[in-house]
Amino acid sequence: MSRVVVVGAGVGGLAVAARLAVAGHEVVVHERAEVVGGKLGRYERDGFVFDTGPSLLTLPQVFADLELGLDPVPLDPVVRHVFADGTVLDSASDPAVFRERIAAVMGAGAAADWERFWRRARRIWAASWRSVLRRPVSPASLAALSWRLADLRAVAPGRSLRALGYRHLRDPRLRMLLDRYATYAGADPRRAPAALAAVPYAELAFGGWYLPGGLHTLAEALSARCRALGVTVVPSSPVTAIRTAHGRVSGVDLADGGVAPADVVVANADALSVYRDLLPCPGRLAGLADRSLAGFVLLLGVRGRTPALAHHTVFFPSYYDAEFDAVFGDPGAGRPARPASDPAVFVTRANDPATHPDGDEAWFVLVNAPPHGTGWAAVDWQRPGLAAAYAEHVLAVLARRGLDVRDRLRFLEWRTPADLAAATGAPGGAIYGTAGSLVRPRNRGPVDGLYLVGGSAHPGGGLPMVTLSARIVADLIGPALTSSPRPRRARSKPGEFGAALRPNSP
């Protein structure tokens, strides 16, 4: 039986802990915070309950073999898009329904364009699922991809998501809709790889889902599953270093001065923190300095009901590029990163009585923001007065877009990238690690017995990708030698969770 220490109880850490426990390993998870879940956070005030991290579940099939007892509810629309000219477009998980909605508000030509793009996105998804998302990344695996010419043509290395949009979509509103998916990976669509077209395909082909009570219930289910399998989860137990001996890991140092011995260490921490702080490795730091977007968040307790809002509603500016120019900065032009003056505003309002008092609403409001720090690509979010002033500014932006909620507030709180960095250890409060990179840091570390799991490692950020990361790492580690053979993984069946699975689907 191998002793496994998992550093961090985020979704990736808990998912890999559960899988390794099933495989017969002795697993202990050390979490720096008082609660589990990592970025999948929860906040309560005056009867209002907020998900402070992800608010949308996609590809729920990838959680099936963890036996969490999830009961996700499909969302329609998945997202409501409100454009500056007043156009409202509701996305749907049925491709035919979404085409009809596009045709109704943008015309038959726009719908035909989307269908052409959709065929390309399907090829990108199939290639990604077949060759990238379920396998460890390595020079050998990338070389193998280069021999699959159809997959390579579909993924289109060297082409940006923006370029793909211009190739297929003539309506600037549809291109804006596509650009937003680059921000799911924390990236600028003008530089993000075209392979990110797999993200809207996965969301719209397999559906967007909500967990009653909030998405934080996923972390609670994972934690309960781990404990039922005999995993020890230790909160308020920061890890300060990863120990090695004779070229392999030997354990971890704890902030309280203790040492936890281990045959295997799985780091569910940001790759930058791992290779900069826990196990200094300058060679692995290359390419990790390009941090992803962070987010500035408002938590609003709102009086009354707002019929104009769907579960998720995004309000676009008239000129999206100004936001990207602001939040990413431009050192060549001498423009440092700064809060966007006219950002896209993403509002999550769950129609779930478990999340708000009767007759009121809990709003989670998100705008893209530079990470916290110094230098041209960051902003000092702890500068006195900045957060309060920007909170008022975001409310004013919403008012200009036709949703003035300022006289309906029961309370207003904000969360800055500095707050996320303090709560989760994410460097600068960046949400997704390296921004928009097609190839994330490898799951296998530079010394024997070290593995990386989570959104900053392969295959990337987002709940389903993090869970696939956990599956990859568990398979790399394998079953304990003294354990009985692992039970065969349950595969999702057509219709499970109400979603019909497509070819090449999870």
From TrEMBL:
<dbReference type="InterPro" id="IPR014105">
    <property type="entry name" value="Carotenoid/retinoid_OxRdtase"/>
</dbReference>
<dbReference type="Pfam" id="PF01593">
    <property type="entry name" value="Amino_oxidase"/>
</dbReference>
<dbReference type="GO" id="GO:0016491">
    <property type="term" value="F:oxidoreductase activity"/>
</dbReference>
<feature type="domain" description="Amine oxidase">
    <location>
        <begin position="12"/>
        <end position="270"/>
    </location>
</feature>
<protein>
    <submittedName>
        <fullName>Phytoene desaturase</fullName>
    </submittedName>
</protein>
<keyword id="KW-0560">Oxidoreductase</keyword>
<dbReference type="GO" id="GO:0016117">
    <property type="term" value="P:carotenoid biosynthetic process"/>
</dbReference>
<feature type="region of interest" description="Disordered">
    <location>
        <begin position="482"/>
        <end position="506"/>
    </location>
</feature>
<comment type="pathway">
    <text>Carotenoid biosynthesis.</text>
</comment>
<dbReference type="InterPro" id="IPR036188">
    <property type="entry name" value="FAD/NAD-bd_sf"/>
</dbReference>
<comment type="similarity">
    <text>Belongs to the carotenoid/retinoid oxidoreductase family.</text>
</comment>
<dbReference type="InterPro" id="IPR002937">
    <property type="entry name" value="Amino_oxidase"/>
</dbReference>
<keyword id="KW-0125">Carotenoid biosynthesis</keyword>
